Write a sequence for this structure.
Protein backbone atom coordinates (compact mmCIF):
# COMPACT_ATOMS: atom_id res chain seq x y z
CA UNK A 1 0.00 0.00 0.00
CA UNK A 2 2.87 2.34 0.80
CA UNK A 3 4.25 1.77 -2.74
CA UNK A 4 0.94 2.95 -4.24
CA UNK A 5 1.21 6.24 -2.33
CA UNK A 6 4.81 6.80 -3.46
CA UNK A 7 4.14 5.99 -7.12
CA UNK A 8 2.14 9.21 -7.86
CA UNK A 9 4.92 11.25 -6.23
CA UNK A 10 7.48 9.66 -8.54
CA UNK A 11 5.40 10.53 -11.62
CA UNK A 12 4.85 14.06 -10.32
CA UNK A 13 8.62 14.47 -9.81
CA UNK A 14 9.33 13.11 -13.29
CA UNK A 15 6.78 15.42 -14.90
CA UNK A 16 8.06 18.49 -13.04
CA UNK A 17 11.67 17.67 -13.98
CA UNK A 18 10.71 17.43 -17.65
CA UNK A 19 8.59 20.62 -17.44
CA UNK A 20 11.46 22.72 -16.12
CA UNK A 21 14.05 23.95 -18.56
CA UNK A 22 17.32 22.08 -18.29
CA UNK A 23 20.18 24.59 -18.58
CA UNK A 24 23.41 22.67 -18.08
CA UNK A 25 25.08 19.41 -19.00
CA UNK A 26 24.79 18.30 -15.38
CA UNK A 27 21.01 18.88 -15.30
CA UNK A 28 20.58 16.97 -18.57
CA UNK A 29 22.63 14.09 -17.14
CA UNK A 30 20.51 14.07 -13.97
CA UNK A 31 17.37 13.93 -16.09
CA UNK A 32 18.64 11.09 -18.30
CA UNK A 33 19.85 9.16 -15.25
CA UNK A 34 16.47 9.51 -13.53
CA UNK A 35 14.69 8.31 -16.70
CA UNK A 36 17.21 5.58 -17.61
CA UNK A 37 14.66 2.74 -17.56
CA UNK A 38 12.34 4.42 -20.08
CA UNK A 39 14.70 6.18 -22.52
CA UNK A 40 14.56 5.52 -26.24
CA UNK A 41 18.03 4.81 -27.72
CA UNK A 42 18.05 8.23 -29.41
CA UNK A 43 17.60 10.06 -26.09
CA UNK A 44 20.74 11.33 -24.40
CA UNK A 45 23.72 13.62 -24.96
CA UNK A 46 25.48 13.48 -28.32
CA UNK A 47 28.51 15.16 -29.86
CA UNK A 48 27.88 16.48 -33.37
CA UNK A 49 30.69 17.08 -35.88
CA UNK A 50 30.11 18.65 -39.27
CA UNK A 51 31.59 18.62 -42.77
CA UNK A 52 30.28 21.06 -45.39
CA UNK A 53 30.67 20.61 -49.13
CA UNK A 54 30.32 23.70 -51.32
CA UNK A 55 29.11 23.35 -54.90
CA UNK A 56 28.54 25.65 -57.85
CA UNK A 57 25.67 23.76 -59.44
CA UNK A 58 27.16 20.22 -59.49
CA UNK A 59 30.85 21.17 -59.29
CA UNK A 60 32.44 20.68 -55.86
CA UNK A 61 34.78 23.61 -55.12
CA UNK A 62 35.42 23.48 -51.35
CA UNK A 63 35.14 21.20 -48.32
CA UNK A 64 35.22 22.54 -44.77
CA UNK A 65 35.47 20.27 -41.73
CA UNK A 66 34.42 21.35 -38.27
CA UNK A 67 35.97 18.68 -36.05
CA UNK A 68 35.24 20.49 -32.78
CA UNK A 69 31.96 18.84 -32.00
CA UNK A 70 28.94 20.53 -30.45
CA UNK A 71 27.21 18.75 -27.56
CA UNK A 72 23.49 18.25 -28.04
CA UNK A 73 20.80 16.66 -25.87
CA UNK A 74 17.91 14.74 -27.46
CA UNK A 75 14.74 14.36 -25.38
CA UNK A 76 11.27 13.03 -26.06
CA UNK A 77 8.60 15.73 -26.25
CA UNK A 78 5.15 14.27 -26.93
CA UNK A 79 5.59 11.94 -29.94
CA UNK A 80 8.80 13.53 -31.30
CA UNK A 81 12.39 13.91 -30.13
CA UNK A 82 13.61 17.49 -29.76
CA UNK A 83 17.25 18.54 -29.61
CA UNK A 84 18.78 21.16 -27.31
CA UNK A 85 22.19 22.67 -26.80
CA UNK A 86 23.37 22.21 -23.22
CA UNK A 87 22.14 25.65 -22.16
CA UNK A 88 18.61 24.45 -22.87
CA UNK A 89 18.02 26.37 -26.11
CA UNK A 90 16.66 24.53 -29.12
CA UNK A 91 19.25 23.03 -31.47
CA UNK A 92 16.57 23.16 -34.19
CA UNK A 93 16.74 19.46 -35.13
CA UNK A 94 13.75 17.22 -34.60
CA UNK A 95 13.54 13.44 -34.93
CA UNK A 96 10.44 11.29 -35.28
CA UNK A 97 9.92 7.55 -35.06
CA UNK A 98 9.44 5.32 -38.10
CA UNK A 99 8.09 1.78 -38.27
CA UNK A 100 11.67 0.46 -38.30
CA UNK A 101 13.39 0.28 -34.91
CA UNK A 102 16.48 2.51 -34.81
CA UNK A 103 15.49 4.45 -37.93
CA UNK A 104 14.25 8.00 -37.45
CA UNK A 105 13.13 10.81 -39.68
CA UNK A 106 14.73 14.15 -39.01
CA UNK A 107 14.25 17.73 -40.01
CA UNK A 108 16.26 20.85 -39.40
CA UNK A 109 14.57 24.20 -38.77
CA UNK A 110 16.21 27.36 -40.13
CA UNK A 111 15.12 30.33 -38.02
CA UNK A 112 16.55 32.89 -40.45
CA UNK A 113 14.09 31.88 -43.17
CA UNK A 114 11.44 30.08 -41.09
CA UNK A 115 11.72 26.85 -43.11
CA UNK A 116 12.66 23.21 -42.69
CA UNK A 117 15.19 21.07 -44.53
CA UNK A 118 13.95 18.17 -46.58
CA UNK A 119 13.28 15.17 -44.38
CA UNK A 120 15.41 12.04 -44.74
CA UNK A 121 16.03 8.88 -42.77
CA UNK A 122 18.87 8.37 -40.32
CA UNK A 123 19.94 5.19 -38.63
CA UNK A 124 21.06 5.20 -35.01
CA UNK A 125 23.20 2.15 -34.38
CA UNK A 126 25.68 1.53 -31.57
CA UNK A 127 25.43 5.15 -30.43
CA UNK A 128 26.16 6.73 -33.82
CA UNK A 129 24.03 8.58 -36.36
CA UNK A 130 24.98 10.12 -39.67
CA UNK A 131 22.88 12.17 -42.02
CA UNK A 132 23.21 14.64 -44.84
CA UNK A 133 21.05 17.51 -46.06
CA UNK A 134 21.30 20.55 -48.30
CA UNK A 135 20.82 24.02 -46.90
CA UNK A 136 17.72 25.66 -48.43
CA UNK A 137 18.41 28.30 -51.10
CA UNK A 138 16.69 31.08 -49.14
CA UNK A 139 18.86 30.31 -46.12
CA UNK A 140 22.03 30.50 -48.26
CA UNK A 141 20.90 33.85 -49.70
CA UNK A 142 20.49 35.23 -46.17
CA UNK A 143 23.80 33.77 -44.89
CA UNK A 144 25.95 34.74 -47.89
CA UNK A 145 24.10 38.05 -48.49
CA UNK A 146 25.87 40.02 -51.26
CA UNK A 147 28.37 37.24 -51.95
CA UNK A 148 25.64 34.70 -52.82
CA UNK A 149 25.88 33.39 -56.39
CA UNK A 150 23.12 31.59 -58.27
CA UNK A 151 23.81 27.83 -58.39
CA UNK A 152 25.45 27.78 -54.95
CA UNK A 153 24.71 24.60 -53.02
CA UNK A 154 25.96 23.65 -49.57
CA UNK A 155 25.65 20.08 -48.35
CA UNK A 156 25.90 19.55 -44.60
CA UNK A 157 27.16 16.13 -43.44
CA UNK A 158 26.70 15.47 -39.74
CA UNK A 159 28.02 12.70 -37.54
CA UNK A 160 26.44 12.23 -34.14
CA UNK A 161 28.13 10.14 -31.43
CA UNK A 162 26.28 9.38 -28.20
CA UNK A 163 28.27 10.19 -25.08
CA UNK A 164 25.61 9.85 -22.32
CA UNK A 165 24.12 7.61 -21.12
CA UNK A 166 26.27 4.78 -22.37
CA UNK A 167 24.41 1.95 -24.10
CA UNK A 168 23.40 -0.85 -21.75
CA UNK A 169 25.45 -4.03 -21.99
CA UNK A 170 23.43 -7.06 -23.08
Amino acid sequence: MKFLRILPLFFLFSASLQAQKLTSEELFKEYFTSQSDSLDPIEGIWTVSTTQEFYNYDTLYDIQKFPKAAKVAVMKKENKYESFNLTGDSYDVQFSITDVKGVYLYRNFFRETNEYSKTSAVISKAGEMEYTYEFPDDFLRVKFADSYEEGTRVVNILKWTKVFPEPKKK
